Amino acid sequence: MKTLTSINPVFVIVVVMVGAIPLLLSGTEINPVLLIASLMVAATPLLIAAIGELVVEKAGVLNLGVEGMMIVGAIAGFAISVETGSALVGALAAIVAGALLSLLFAFLTQFALANQVASGLALTLFGLGLSALMGQSYVGIRPPAMAKLDLPVISDLPVVGPILFSHDPILYVGIGLCAAVWGLLKFSRAGLVLRAVGENHDAAHALGYHVIRVRVLAIMFGGACAGLGGAYISLIRVPQWTEGMTAGIGWIALALVVFASWKPWRVLLGAYLFGGINVLQLNLQAAGIAIPVEYLAMSPYLITILVLVIMSADKSGAPASLGRSFHASQ
Amino acid sequence: MTGTLLSITGLTKAYPGVVANDSVSFDIGESEVHALLGENGAGKSTLVKMIYGLVKPDSGTMTWRGEAYAPPEPRIARATGVAMVFQHFSLFEALNVAENVALGMENPPPMRDLARRIREVSETYGLPLDPYRTVGDLSAGERQRVEIIRCLLQDPKLLIMDEPTSVLTPQEVEILFKTLRKLKSEGTSILYISHKLEEIRALCDQATILRLGKNVGTCIPAETTARQMAEMMVGDTLQTPTRTASDGGEVVLDVTGLSVASSNPFGTTLKNIHFRVRAGEILGLGGVAGNGQDELLAALSGEAKTTSDTIKVKGKPVGRLGPNERRKLGILAAPEERLGHAAAPDMSLTENALLTGAIRKKLLSNGFVNWGGAEDFAKDVIKKFDVRTPGASTAARALSGGNLQKFVIGREVLQAPEVLVVNQPTWGVDAAAAAAIRQSLLDLAAGGAAVVCISQDLDELMEISDRFGALNEGRLSDIRPAAGLTIDEIGLMMGGAHGMEVAHVGEEEGAEA
Predict the structure, then answer these.
(1) Which of A57, A185, A207, A321 should we substitute to test contact with B (largest number of B Cβ atoms within 10 Å)?
(2) Domain ranges (residues) in chain B
(3) Do B103 and A199 touch (CB under 8 A)?
(4) pLDDT digits over B375-430, tens only?
(5) Measured distance CA(B50)–CA(B63) in Å, rounded
(6) Among A15, A106, B89, B291, which is disulfide-ready with B471 (CB 3.0 to 4.6 Å)?
(7) Domain spanning B4-234 has what CATH number?
(8) How large is the greatest C-alpha to C-alpha distance in chain B, in angstroms?
(9) Pairing outcome for strands B467-472 and B82-85
């Protein structure tokens, strides 16, 4: 049983990827190198938002407001970069906006001890409405472009160049974030305290750790990540502003964290899988393959969840205090 | 004794509605083992939390080796030299031993050095531990070792232990006492909280007794009898439960080949359990926590279903029936966890009375609730079991542990069960309430019911059971008559795989326990 589950995920992914190649080649004008390069772009918003939520959940907080924080980050980043003419300033503004909105959630759940599920849902609804209001005058505008990495010689290498060395900086930030979160959680004292708070908040309090402070910081980090992920959609991936343009990526990020068993590298894998199938199905649609569009459109969601469900069969590593309110009584 | 380590003067702490500590004063000497005695709710926990910096006193002062001591938070207390082993372990199940230890230290060394030091210290004090094991997989005794090692690595001057032996086998208690005596000989003072009086007599140099938040007296435990100390705690003379011997009733409960997988990932699977209980008999089941107690209660109450013939009541197979169908047949149960399992915390006592009493007390008709009847039943329980509460409409959460426990047991006893299964009936309950609960179980058996009492309190089991068995890793030992069992024999029944080096310690020191 144990070996079965440990082999399964790798096996399934290989089958999916190998199965995709003949399909890929059948659509004649699809270029595999470009496909992988655009897969990484498609996966980045999901990756960044999910890494943020992973940290929040490791601290024992369930924030269902990821979608709302992403869309607010998307419009804040878009608006500020249009006004200042700098995409990087816009991205920073999105980080601040996401963190600010998450503070509202932090106040409700950590100080007013409101229910986390209800507060998170409210945050998403609020974010969707707020972003529509903020974005009214920005529909149809093109944002300033973000400079792409351009290393002499290296970026011009065939295959490796377009895949690894000619993206926008935020994409690398996303991968770096994933590595940093993994390292911090596993090796640092701060990561240990964060996990301890998520695991047993009463014990952490008894040992003298500041449960609420740790959780508020984690929630702000999650908000900042969600904001940046949202801005990536409106500034780089699309790039323009339309209402509701995050289109459920925040919800996928939430599911991704659970099915990735709260492990950063699995989040990365899941995000790239989702991005890959998404790009592939768009290409297949364009190539006019004889599968109804609706099936193609739902395939990234279905396949990502299916793969991650199989992977998470080994051991569920849910933080034991996840979603529980902490109050230092006596 | 060379001098005073910590001196406490007039410490007072009030919570809304309760004065937890009312100008408590006492001194702890250098390398002294000082006992803090008192019933539940006497204010022991609040007092030690003030010493450890978790709670700020309203008034009063503490002096540490002649200097003012007022820790604003635990890290200051730890830096001064105070370490604490908590009653409900402050451990993180998903983390490993070394990580748990690191969380309790101010400046932990890198993990590899820490792991080595854990090995060294644990071997020096005879408490072997593997630093890389996940705490969720450890036994209660091993978990306590983690807590103690965490304290010892900080070289404490004062070690506070809150009810440390409630989850240990007698042999593990002996190992712990050896460790504590060794610490004392090295100059560490120990503040030892317990309500097990014989342990205090064996270990402690001085005792301070708290009642309702006040210091009501001090004594030298070795020169005082357990009964005298108990009466100081209660402030009244103590009644010992009386039993009338009965035997030879018909077999009421017959369990054969019971095997159930646990619903909890850190739980224990029951393996091939056999036992019979006759009418009028109390079967006591001991064992260290986490050896299948919760699972056995679930299987008997009907929360976990088994094959039909595994459990028979008066010859009738009930293995497949759910809790309500079993209640109809007279099989009632009172689980260990009071809030959330035995009672719904935010519901009133009337509602809680209805939840298990609806069927046998006929409080339902055509799907409608007879609220008047439910309230009468709740009031009856409150009256007959001396539950101290403003009324039947109080939420279960608002009752103290002991009072809620009396309510939970009383609710089942007053439904006149044929079979009653209780798990930890007096856990965290003060001496007077515990005596009342035990007496009610004895009376119930005397009236012809079969009682299964699962408990970790061996004194309790020896006091009330007719026959005794022990659970160990989901298996049940042979069942033997309780009268005449020695503490060594019980320890071996409970020990099983936990034994190892425990066995020879038991031979050397068992006599004095």
Answers:
(1) A207
(2) 4-234, 251-482
(3) no
(4) 999 999 999 888 888 888 888 887 877 788 889 999 999 999 999 999 988 876 77
(5) 13
(6) B291
(7) 3.40.50.300
(8) 75
(9) unpaired
